[in-house]
Write a structure and sequence with these properties.
With 189 residues, the chain is mostly beta strands. The protein contains one helix and eight strands. The protein has one domain: Porin, CATH 2.40.160.
Length: 189
Amino acid sequence: MKKGILILLVGGVWSSAGLLGSTVVWAGVMELSGSFSYSRSNYDHESSSDSRRFAFGVGYYFFGDSELEFEVQDVLYHNRITNIEDTTFHDQIYSLDWVQSFAPRGSFFRPYFKVGIGQLNRTASGYYPGGVAPPAIYDSITGVLGVGLKMHLYEALALRMEGSTYLINGAASTAADNFSLGGGLSVFF
């Protein structure tokens, strides 16, 4: 069922791409991108919270400003609060995203937003207060939202900063739970 929904979405985006505009300034260009973010909060000498996220994407530009991207994210959260909680969540997100830029190809700064749908695979371990454990495995359809900025150092190389989140079960109320700000590189060929 989940795979069928994803296939329908891919087909819909792919077929509607030809209807969205007639500009073919940058059509055929591919982009490889990677980004990383890390944060750590120490509450005392024994309690802390860690978060790290890797994202890798392969995109194809149908038009000068529109890209279809396949992205893989690998996210790890670890919360340790002495005598209260010690949990680890490992999320893997596979998504198909529409990326829309707001500046022409030759611009040094290219702001963009992205929206997509994908599959979230989560494994969890640890305990909450009272010894209750989180679900060991949780899989769901997820939405992906992001905004960012690409700074082109060369025509084929750009630095990027992106704020993104994934919506568990597509629920907007989970946007703040999974938000990350990261930086990385894009290579165009």
